[in-house]
Amino acid sequence: SLEQTRPALPSDPFLQAEYLFHSGDFFAAKPLYHDYLSRNPSGKRSYLALFRLGRIDQSNRSYSTAVRFYQILLQKFPDSLLSNSARFNMAVCNYELAHYSIAESMFKLVLRSSPDKKRKWEIMYYLAQIDAKLMNYEKAFNSLKQLYEQTQDKEIGKRALKIAENLINEKVSTTQISSLIQKLGAGFPVDLLLLKRISSFRAKGNIS
């Protein structure tokens, strides 16, 4: 039966919340973290409870409330081991809320302080997307070029390629393509820009 196969939850409510969180049962974990914080507002595990609540709301796309939990964590526990992760998650939430200026400054703060190379590539990926959304295409393509050519993370490289292709196919005008080809030099993404220019010439009947 289910009762026999499911292990007994720990007696400690915080450990119960952790078990449920890591099992993916965020709905059941959330009130237990809230309960822990109401009983232990400055407890030694409060920073972790705040971080988990932020992650739960972020995963549910409740970005504004997620930001609030991360803010409380950083205000109350500025030297926590999770401070950089909280700042990164706050930046992602602000990006999703289209608060691009706030997101950019927070991403750059984490970029300067994080020793994690993969995290740095992730941040550059987001910064490139912010530049693209603000229509700063030259800056966006330079970041994507660096990501595509230098990252060892294949997934990040694929995502950089996809963003470049989407920008070229959906956002950048023919006039901008010619200008970008001159400014960006050789290699990626100039090869994609050249293909787009050739296809647009063909569409106009300028190339057979």
Would you mind describing this structure in some detail?
The chain is mostly helical and 208 residues long. Helices cover 75% and strands 0% of the residues. It contains twelve helices and no strands. The protein has helices at 2-5, 13-22, 26-39, 46-59, 63-76, 83-96, 100-113, 117-133, 137-150, 154-170, 174-184, 190-203. Helix 7 packs antiparallel against helix 8 (117-133) and helix 11 packs antiparallel against helix 12. The chain is elongated, with a radius of gyration of 22 Å. The model is unreliable at 1-5 (pLDDT under 50).
Ordered list of secondary-structure elements with their pairings:
Blueprint: H1 2-5, H2 13-22, H3 26-39, H4 46-59, H5 63-76, H6 83-96, H7 100-113, H8 117-133, H9 137-150, H10 154-170, H11 174-184, H12 190-203
Helix pairs in contact: 2-3, 3-4, 4-5, 5-6, 6-7, 7-8, 8-9, 8-10, 9-10, 11-12
